[in-house]
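Researcher: Quick test of sequence recovery. Tokens follow.
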């Protein structure tokens, strides 16, 4: 069955820079002779996502010319055409290493455990203007926010970047949730087997409360109302996140429980529509994880989230208000509520995946269910702050069922108490 959507960058199939199983031992022996360059846990996920094609059409970290074009124009040029691309990806070097890693040489990349994970044929080594990067990606000169801190503190020692062409060993599977992390080619196969003609992806880095859930349900129902035989992929990001975000292992347990309980959208979905199409929301949802780091980049990251999913073969992606949002340290907003919606209307390069723009949702007593807030301008929703939710869970108690499903509450309460 033909793919529903081509990979990004005008490719016929996703990039594949992963070393085949039969060549692994020879690759390791050859790589052991090369100069070594360490990469952080966060950048390691980018290594693997370049290799498996999630970051198609990239075949390695960006050279300076490509990097600069992303910062200035939010595009990459491939085979003479411009494609949307909003956050540059290259690998950092310390001052000391920048004098030893030279264009024209091949280096071995090592992960945090010191093991070789990949090689790069280096094409370019160049100074990293961090202030320019932060201003271009985050739209602010301030650095007191998660994205700024990742660059200024997390990569404090790095002064340079390098680009080139990469080959990587297969990524080891995480024992807790590795079965959910598939390559774009594998995801495309799963989608083809479902026989759907449209698939909407749902990005999250949090356990789902009912308002989150509703954004996924709304996206799926929008496609079904258009007459499509549609499905959805609940696609949480399981790469590097902030230290105060719930761990990927715990989050994956909550998503598994939600689907197993058929709780997804229960009481909040359009009963009439589902009677017509048959089945329940959970019957049309696949759980898959995406192991890539979070940039906390708001609108610019919303576009990247769409690119990843196009490469996975999804036709649509839910883009919420405040998508990929994180505030300044004093709590003030970096971006407007709708900036992540509006950026898709002003792209300078091609992007084939379609954004499904969704506003805030909440539980309304008048309906006895969750609905979009824009439909209830004069009614106050049931609202509990994130602080109250955390306090309830830390005491080992269940969150109000109008806010969060009992299965999710139970897993989070046990984890937080422990």
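Model:
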């Amino acid at each position: 069955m033909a793919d529903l959507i081509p990979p990004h960058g005008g490719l016929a199939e996703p990039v594949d820079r992963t070393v085949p199983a039969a060549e692994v031992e020879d690759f390791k022996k050859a790589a052991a002779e090369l100069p070594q360059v360490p990469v952080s846990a966060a950048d390691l996920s980018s290594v693997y996502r370049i290799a498996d094609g999630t970051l198609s059409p990239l075949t390695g970290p960006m050279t300076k010319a490509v990097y600069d074009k992303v910062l200035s124009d939010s595009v990459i040029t491939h085979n003479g055409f411009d494609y949307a691309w909003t956050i540059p990806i290259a690998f950092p070097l310390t001052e000391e290493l920048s004098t030893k890693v030279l264009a024209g040489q091949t280096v071995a990349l090592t992960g945090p455990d010191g093991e070789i994970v990949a090689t790069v044929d280096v094409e370019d080594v160049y100074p990293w203007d961090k202030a320019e990067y932060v201003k271009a990606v985050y739209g602010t000169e301030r650095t007191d926010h998660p994205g700024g801190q990742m660059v200024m503190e997390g990569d404090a020692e790095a002064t340079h970047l390098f680009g080139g062409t990469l080959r990587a060993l297969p990524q080891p599977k995480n024992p807790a949730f590795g079965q959910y992390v598939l390559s774009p080619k594998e995801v495309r196969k799963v989608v083809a087997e479902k026989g759907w003609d449209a698939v909407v992806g749902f990005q999250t880095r949090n356990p789902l409360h009912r308002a989150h859930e509703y954004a996924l349900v709304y996206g799926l129902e929008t496609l079904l109302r258009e007459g499509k035989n549609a499905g959805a992929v609940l696609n949480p990001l399981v790469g590097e996140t902030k230290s105060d975000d719930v761990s990927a292992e715990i989050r994956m347990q909550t998503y598994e429980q939600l689907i197993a309980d058929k709780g997804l959208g229960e009481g909040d979905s359009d009963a009439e529509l589902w009677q017509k199409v048959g089945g329940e929301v959970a019957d049309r949802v696949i759980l898959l994880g995406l192991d890539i780091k979070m940039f906390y980049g708001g609108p610019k990251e919303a576009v990247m989230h769409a690119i990843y999913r196009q490469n996975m073969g999804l036709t649509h992606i839910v883009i919420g208000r405040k998508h990929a949002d994180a505030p300044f340290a004093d709590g003030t907003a970096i971006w407007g509520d709708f900036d992540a919606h509006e950026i898709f209307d002003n792209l300078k390069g091609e992007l084939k995946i379609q954004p499904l723009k969704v506003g805030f949702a909440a539980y309304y007593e008048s309906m006895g269910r969750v609905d979009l807030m824009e439909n209830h301008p004069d009614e106050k929703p049931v609202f509990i702050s994130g602080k109250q939710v955390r306090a309830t869970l830390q005491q080992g108690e269940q969150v109000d069922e109008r806010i969060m499903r009992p299965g999710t509450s139970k897993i989070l309460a046990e984890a937080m108490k422990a």
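The chain has a mean pLDDT of 95.
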